[in-house]
Amino acid sequence: MRLVVFCEAAADFRTAATLVDRVLREEGPKWVADLLETHPEAVRVFAGESLERPFYDVHHMQQHRRDLEKRLRETPLADLKSRGATTGLSDFLNELARELLPLCGASPC
């Protein structure tokens, strides 16, 4: 499963990742707990800004939105439809940014 986490700092991401793994171990089937011990990437992968930064910084929400919109514009419409994307994605991202930015003390760019 691919997970996306928005955090203020790397320490927040480590806390969130630890909690995700704990819930998966305690609430998931035994094979999930076993795999998390040996091959956690087989169970969950955190998708973020980069391999070194496996989360999205909430202080850069507007830039993340612009980057995603650019990728969406460069992706053929047929690909987006086959992935289940909707035309309301941009509106959703704008609303998400408006809600998260005040929480982290940032202002829109």
Layout of helices and strands:
Blueprint: E1 2-4, E2 6-7, H1 10-27, H2 30-38, E3 45-47, E4 56-57, H3 61-74, H4 77-82, H5 89-103
Parallel strand pairs: 1-3, 2-4
Helix pairs in contact: 1-2, 3-5
List SSEs in N-to-C order: EEHHEEHHH
What are the low-pLDDT stretches, counting only 5+ consecutive residues below 50? Answer: none
How helical, in percent, are the residues?
A: 55-70%
Shape, per Cα inertia axes = elongated
Describe the biggest sheet? 2 strands, parallel
Q: What separation lies between the terminal Cα atoms? A: 32 Å
Strands, total number: 4
Count of alpha/pi helices: 5
Class per helix and strand makeup: mainly alpha
Oligomer class: single chain
Describe this structure in words.
The protein starts with a strand and ends in a 6-residue tail after the last helix. It is built from 5 helices and 4 strands, in the order ββααββααα. The chain has 109 residues and is mainly alpha-helical. It has helices at residues 10-27, 30-38, 61-74, 77-82, 89-103; strands at 2-4, 6-7, 45-47, 56-57. The relative contact order is 0.14.
At a glance:
The protein has 109 residues and is mainly alpha-helical. The chain has five helices and four strands, in the order E-E-H-H-E-E-H-H-H.
Tag the structure with descriptive keywords.
single chain; 109 residues; mainly alpha; two-stranded parallel ribbon
